[in-house]
Amino acid sequence: MASSIGGLASGLNTSDLINAMLAAERTTKNRLVNKQNTYSKQLSTWQDLNSKLGALRSAVYAVSTPNKVASATASSDDETLVAATATSNASPSTFTFRVSQLAAAQQKMAAGFTDVTDVVGEGKAQVASGLAALGLAVIDASGLDAGKYEVAVTEIGVSTATVSFGGYEQTVSNTGTITLTDNEGNSATFSIGTLEVGSAKIGVVDTSGATTLSQFATAINSLNAGVSAAAVNTNDGTGTPTKFVLSAQEAGIDHAVTADFSNLSGLAAKTFATLRAAADAQLTLADGLTTITRSSNHLTDVIPGVTLDLLAADGATDVTVTVRRNEQTLVDAASSVVDGLNSVLAAAKSASTVNAENKTVGTLGGDSRLRRLSSTLIAAMSYSDTTQQLQVLSEIGISMGRDGRYSLDESKFRDAISDDYSGTVRLLSGDGITVKGVFGTLYDTVKEMVDANGLVSSAVGAAQSSMNSLKARLLVEDARLSLVEARIRRQYTTLETTMAQLSSQANGLTRSLG
User: Fold this and answer.
1) Pairing with 71, which of 40, 216, 380, 501 sits 20 to 30 Å away (CA)?
2) The model's pTM
């Protein structure tokens, strides 16, 4: 309160009396404040543990399953010819071969146009990619509306074949001619050569009498039917500098381009010369007899887990691709787990330590949840795989010392990787099916602790709830103290006023008698 009572009338040290009474009244608040400080430290400790467990969870997640642990590198001894990269499941190996031929996308060109604005004529035109590789050729596309159609030969029998056209599967003869129809009634007639399983794309364009060469190219490109078109003005100094070029969108013989412009007056008489033939990539092995053929220069299925990008062909030069395990990645990952675990255990130990000599107690001293946290983590690290030769972590260089800290013997760990890579990975990360492994078990343990309703997340929530409850009680207590102080001051003010009045009356009586 702002007012001051000096005790002039009563002769008492009223201010000291009031302060002493208020100090007695503040006992409850002081107790609540002390408890609030304790809860605040406990909350901070649990939050710190939660943060450290989150970091451990991230570290152990990186090695919690075999596919995360596995790491390999691939290198080519001649990167002018071949570039190599490896995925995590690549096995150590060496592969030598020669790049006899690169895959190439077919390109055709028709000449004799005066300008890109030359009119192609009214009619229906058809382009296709990969149709010839299926053993099919379009005889009549008049029943097809403008658009893109996909053809797939999925099964070839003795006398029939299963063919999908526009997503509609049908059984047809595997010789002679066939008519295929899609779900919307569009149909086309094909001649059959030697059928092969595979897929192709057909694009149909309807032109008007005003459609220019450039517009025709744009219409073909908009279909995305595996064929690109371009009207190119070469400015070659002749009267017909413009060329019309068709290109396969993908390399390989299976994506060769076919086209039928016989209904277009501006193109029907043109001859398309081959600028670049469709070609498959070819690798020749060391015996000089075995050839690997692919339709792309980006090879993902030659060496398991390895991607080969063919950059140039040289049939006289050997290229060796070597795949090695990336031991350092696994070493670094295991080290991160050990460091993260030690951080959690050290924080838990510090928070629970009771020092009888110095009479000090950690912020969570005596809290059984800390003991449960530490023992649960240690139990996870004590996982044993009795189904293989490497059964416990100490056999691969990870162990707990007398100080309660884990350590990684990098030399022993590397030896284990070198001597029994699969066994080391299985011990750490399981088999990805039924065996969890040490780190897989540890990950599940940590996840359960920090997930909602887990040991640590529940502890954080409980501490926060206690803090909030104390804040509410302190507000009530502050309000009570304000009322008490106001009441005490009113009482002493009344006392001093009464004493002053009595003193004045006494003085007056004394004067009247004297």
Assistant:
1) 380
2) 0.64
